[in-house]
Amino acid sequence: MESMVEVRSERVQQSIQGVVIQRTRLKLLFIPVFTSILVWACLVQLWHMRLLSGFTRVTKASVRVDETVHSTTPRNYTSNGFLQVSCNGGLNQMRAAICDMVTVARLLNLTLVVPELDKSSFWADPSNFEDIFDVRHFIDSLRDEVNIIKRLPKKVARSYGYHPVVMPPVSWSSEKYYLQQILPLFSKHQVVNFNRTDTRLANNGIPLELQRLRCQVNFHALKFTQKIEALGQKLVHMLQQRGPFVALHLRYEMDMLAFSGCTEGCTEEEAEELKQLRYAFPWWKEKEIVSDEKRSQGLCPLTPEETTLILQALGIEKNMQIYIASGDIYGSEQRLATLRTAFPKIVKKEMLLDPEELQQFQNHSSQMAALDFVVSTASNIFIPTYDGNMAKLVEGHRRYHGYKKTILLDRKTLVGLLDLHHNRTLSWAEFSAAVRQSHEGRIGQPAHRRVIEDKPKEEDYFYANPHECLCESARCEGLDNSTEVR
To answer: InterPro entries attached here (predicted)?
Structure first.
């Protein structure tokens, strides 16, 4: 009996030992299998993360190539302070200023607050930045260069008792001025407000990467709002359906004549009205102006009558569409009579669009100017009668987008020829030949900017001919790398 019990006990122990051995073997087998599964899972996860990361990088890089002049490396946004800017002037003066201020913010590593637009000038346009430009696109397309915010944080806002330093930077200033004179201000003050922004950055002598950033802002980041762009393109389409067209920036407008002191073609009463307007604006320093002297120096816009003769001399055909890109012509429609007789296909946006379509832009001169800007950049030929900010900015856009024909009128030469023709010293054939010959090299073809030492106001304007942003392509073949100096 005892032997039977011993046998059973031995069998049980053997069974238990077998189970233990089997479990031990299973454990030994499970450990490498589990480890292998864990390793493979980690590898798969790592590969998946790298794939997504690579895809994201490729996508972002593609967007940058599409939206900027040159791809850039994302920056560290360790900000030295906040830069506020209050732009002054009309649409295109403010546009160039915004490009400069973005560049200054990039140079000094500042956080830029979305610029405030001029509401107190002659035009009294109440438009905000977001009424004219696509603010989200502006911020997003520059995020790899400059940190831009819509408004100041509450802790440094005026409403919370904080008062920024308010000042105008020195005109035509170099990189050195901003680094040595402006940057130290931010070590004492969190916020600096530039209350005048026109021509505050030099045309020349700026590092190449900053010049190209100015182009990136101008040609890519500053997009008009969808409603402006859509209506502008509608105008372009309507004109193109009828054939080629000239965009004529006829700057014979009340503000231009008043502030320039140019009264050619005006009656005595009109000349006095313009003078009184000039005196009504204290910020305009030049009050007593001799119109004839200004005109002889080429500093006056051409009159509609003078413009008619110049267009005919240049060979513009009578049946060519002429789109008048301007505000109200001084003297109203009667001043356009001569021009309309010579070129019957004169049109304006008010003639092409329904009143309801333009209603939303009424009393918003900058938004109306934006429509003319869209049409002017798309025209077959662009001819400005005065080299103001719109003329320069449109010229620059037309250079950048393929050197479209822009006839840059040499007014000093032209007024001399016009006077000789009027007093019968020059026949029509001689006059027209002289006009064409004097403009053979003034049609917006590739060229480097002229630099006039110590005379930045007289040298070529950066935004009219940003050659640093153009000469990496076949469009600039044959140009050397130097800047023309005179």
So the answer is: FucosylTrfase_pln, GDP-Fuc_O-FucTrfase
